[in-house]
Amino acid sequence: ARRKLSSIKKANAVTLDGAPIELVANIELPQDVEDVKAAGAVGIGLFRSEFLFLGRDTLPSEDEQFEAYRQVVADMKGFPVTIRTMDLGADKNPKWSVHGVSDNPALGLCGIRLCLAEPQLFRSQLRALLRASTHGKLRVLFPMINGLTDLKQALAQLDLARHELRSENIPFDEKLEVGAMIEIPSAALVINSLVKHVNFFSVGTNDLIQYTLAIDRNDDAVSSLYDPTHPAVLYLIQHTIKAANKAGLPVSVCGEMAGDARLTRLLLGMGLRKFSMHPANMLSVKQVVLNTHLDRLHTLTGRILRADDPDKIHDLLQQLNALDC
Ligand code: PEP
Ligand code: MG
């Protein structure tokens, strides 16, 4: 039975067989929190903090950053807020950057690499995040991790920031949770080496698809080839979810796939229980959750994951979405 949209908005996201599904939101700036609340999200799964660093001539100070993070976690009143450290350099280039734009920016000094190349700047953000962590439930997420080496270096910077704050008697949440984005195929493939070092994972499918299929996510000339259900992409997502579940670590998807209601059942069938999306997509995704028995997804999901012909996958996906369950 289909419910009215207004009643869906207030409903908890629970499947027909009673499994709670966490639907959280992606934001770019502190003022987006209003939309998050209006959409009924139970947290923020991705705060793209780099937007605080864009469209301006100078860098935001540590205090200015602190105030932005504090405001968001306080506004969310105890709901978890996952703040991604600045993810610049690929498709987002700040005016103040001293690094030139490379021929292949998406393969260049971007994401965590740029942060590790600018440790002072990175630590100003990490200090601001740690300071804000006493004002609500804040979690830190590192973007563009490609394996254990860059993850360890990022964690070492976080440890340095903790050490600095301790020596200045500035409080922070000692239990702060730290996660890695899985959005580079190598990170998905070596995920078992990362599980001991983080508290959670978030799958960035926008970049994962780009890097797996070698399709520029912003190039219209190849946009028709950008296929979230390509068997290689599904393999990497499935591998990530399984490894996280096995290690007992929470995993979410925060790329556009999480907000695409046509893919909700497939992701549920693959074992995903947390989806982070633009607030505008929350109702349609929740509607699918409310109309789905997890139990009844197994057969078709299994066939999709075993299929090697993309046409067959598309056909099976339609069947999955047409299931009356
Ligand atoms: C992603 O890559 O899927 C993601 C969520 O991050 P962004 O879109 O900001 O690169
Ligand atoms: Mg990304």
Automatic annotation (TrEMBL):
It is found in: Cytoplasm. Mg(2+) binds at E183, D207. Its EC number is 2.7.3.9. One of its GO terms (biological process) is phosphoenolpyruvate-dependent sugar phosphotransferase system. It catalyses: L-histidyl-[protein] + phosphoenolpyruvate = N(pros)-phospho-L-histidyl-[protein] + pyruvate. GO terms for cellular component: cytoplasm. Its main location: cytoplasm. Keywords: Cytoplasm, Kinase, Magnesium, Metal-binding, Phosphotransferase system, Pyruvate, Sugar transport, Transferase, Transport. It comes from the Bacteria. One of its GO terms (molecular function) is kinase activity. Phosphoenolpyruvate binds at R48, R84, N206, D207, R217. Its cofactor is Mg(2+). Residues 5-292 form the PEP-utilising enzyme C-terminal domain. The active site is at C254 (proton donor). Belongs to the PEP-utilizing enzyme family. General (non sugar-specific) component of the phosphoenolpyruvate-dependent sugar phosphotransferase system (sugar PTS). This major carbohydrate active-transport system catalyzes the phosphorylation of incoming sugar substrates concomitantly with their translocation across the cell membrane. Enzyme I transfers the phosphoryl group from phosphoenolpyruvate (PEP) to the phosphoryl carrier protein (HPr). This is Phosphoenolpyruvate-protein phosphotransferase. It comes from Rivihabitans pingtungensis. The lineage of its organism: Bacteria, Pseudomonadati, Pseudomonadota, Betaproteobacteria, Neisseriales. The chain holds residues 254 to 578 of 580 of the full protein.
